[in-house]
What does this fold into?
Amino acid sequence: MEGISSDFLVIGGGIAGLIFAIKASEFGSVTVLTKAASDEANTAYAQGGIASVWSVDDSFESHVDDTLRAGAGLCNRAAVETIVRDGPEAVRELIALGTRFTRVEEGGEDEYDLGREGGHSHRRVLHAQDLTGREIMRALGDAVRARPNIRMLENHVAVNLLIERASNGRPGACWGAYALEKSSLAIRKVVARATLLATGGAGKVYLYTTNPDIASGDGVAMAYRAGAPIANMEFYQFHPTCLYHPAAKSFLISEALRGEGAILRLPDGTPFMKRYHADAELAPRDIVARAIDSEMKRLGLDCVYLDISHRDASYIVNRFPNIHKRCLSYGFDLTVEPIPVVPAAHYMCGGVMTDLMGRTSIPRLYAAGEVAMTGLHGANRLASNSLLEAAVMGRRAVASVRESLRHDSAAPAEFPEWDPGQAIKNEQRVMITHSWEEIRRLMWNYVGIVRSDRRLERALRRIQLLKEEIHSYYWDHLIDSDLIEVRNLVTVAELVVRCAMARKESRGLHYNLDHPERIDAHWMHNTVISGGPAPALTSATHPA
Ligand SMILES: Cc1cc2nc3c(=O)[nH]c(=O)nc-3n(C[C@H](O)[C@H](O)[C@H](O)COP(=O)(O)OP(=O)(O)OC[C@H]3O[C@@H](n4cnc5c(N)ncnc54)[C@H](O)[C@@H]3O)c2cc1C
It folds into this structure.
């Protein structure tokens, strides 16, 4: 199969990957891999918007404080300050590239409409109605198509990174990746002088998730296998409200509904949030998610209900046109009835550790966006800070690559073509589908919103067994995208469990019944697992 060579390889075509590709194309050739169609990414599903200091009433200090407060003591202050301060420039660049954020008439002036979301003390969320992500993807997609230096390869799944052998005690560099072309099942070698991981999150590790199918944590698993440190995987954010319907696999019902007065009810109509928090429906999102989880477990419910039908129908339709339309397509009319909702895995705060230039510990390997752990989110993500982080870090990684390749004349190491050895055709699909289902269900039941030592131990035992089975299956069979994903998913599941077991306290998004208190004296640091042949669990504190 024909190999590919370019200056830069970008694995992932969401906001982080596309911004990097667009800017890197100014000084080199770029190959972008997306494992499905190019518009299928977490970015495309973002409804709320992108947080950035924009109005004169707002300040960087205020955005920094809000972010640090949400992060429950674990944010890296330097990361927070850098990303917040770079925010307006990154947003201006999105606008320059064609993103049309919603505008309003304000005192006779035509201004960007700034939304306010939970945890933000100012209005600072730029949005495109409730379809912000789609609009950003449209604009970036157009910009990519207009640049001949960028080659998009859709339906190509990165399998493993090309890592040079270590020499003189120095870790081996990354020179690209092997990628599976889904239509032919052929594996191509994609060689590049620098590689960006921009593969997004791993929501698919849980039974219920707001994430699309691409979110199987491939970037984290690939980097871990290559030896990069992975951190804070115990902090998985659950969105309180995802539509509960078998066909609506991952449809999120924005928190803005609760912001506009929607009430959470049990099946008999009883509201319950007042019992959990004085702010009821406006409590922080992790408290709302935990309350719903607790009511569902207490009463053995499949879902609870969200009710905004007391508000004026025309207001609902205008404010939430997309949510209203999608709910109607599943047979629910927001304007007249409560809709069924469940909490769902939403955002991976942990990931591949990077510095503030997007560098991982592996030379020539960068990471940006949800796959990366810069220290911005700490133990909990502030709403709408993730698009911000992805846009800022995509740009910073380009600056860093440009600088380090300026005088680089090293020749790529030699890597063999992919050799399937004695692998046979994969004819036992049930093995993959069953493992996939089992991982997601056990993660949901034992490593979900509320954890305990016993549940985590039980989860780890089962995951290790599944991992052995999946790995031996992987080596004996010709690979396809399902097999690649399930192998990555079991690795990510293990990383989440190991990080969760290491943290003997409750903080931010991690809640353990056996250690319900936050213990600052011992736990003001990240849980870090270094990958490679000899994985080790350590901890690290960000520089102040
Ligand atoms: C429903 C929903 C609503 C959200 N709302 C908001 C919001 O309002 N504000 C906010 O800030 N954040 C929001 N988020 C989070 C935010 O959208 C994501 O964190 C962000 O878009 C991630 O961008 P990314 O570029 O890192 O990854 P993604 O946009 O997820 O892109 C990942 C890319 O990697 C590719 N990929 C993955 N694995 C491979 C592989 N092995 N080989 C090749 N390609 C691969 C995929 O095909 C895809 O192109 C929301 C998320 C969801 C799911």
About this structure: The first strand starts at residue 4 and ends at 11. DSSP finds 15 helices and 21 strands in the chain.
